[in-house]
Please model this.
Amino acid sequence: MEYQVGQAGRVIVARLFENDPVYESIVNVCSTESIHSAVFWIIGGVKKVSVVTGPEDYSARPLQAIVADLPGVQEILGTGTVFPNGDNEPTIHMHASLGHDSHTVTGCPRINLDCWLICELIIQEITGVTAQRVKDDSSYQLLRVGGEY
Model:
């Protein structure tokens, strides 16, 4: 395990409008506000939803994702983190429960996620930590905490 103790920084409250791209919106806020590390919560409606629901084979490298394409609009309740990658750009890791009618899926939504009607977004800045996403043999950018990368 790797860990550091940080502090809570600024809190940003945002409303996304219909067709706003969810991931891009989060990255834009973090870039504009110079937020390098954060946790966020999102609630609302989304469309154009693809969700990673696990790897096909847990032991294979690189991992091959199982992706579920969800039709129409979906309700979303999600949480995630923002940390810089090797190019010091904010990168997002989010997991969410998404559903419509009686069908619900939980997983990692893909980047082409767009807001439907409204999404409420809360971003809580984390200060005093040095963490970064580093690509490894899994083919994913995984979090490393502390140290220099």
Q: What stands out?
A: Residues 102 and 113 are 21 Å apart (CA to CA). The mean pLDDT is 94. The domain at 7-145 is CATH 3.30.1330.80 (60s Ribosomal Protein L30; Chain: A;). The two ends are 17 Å apart (CA to CA).
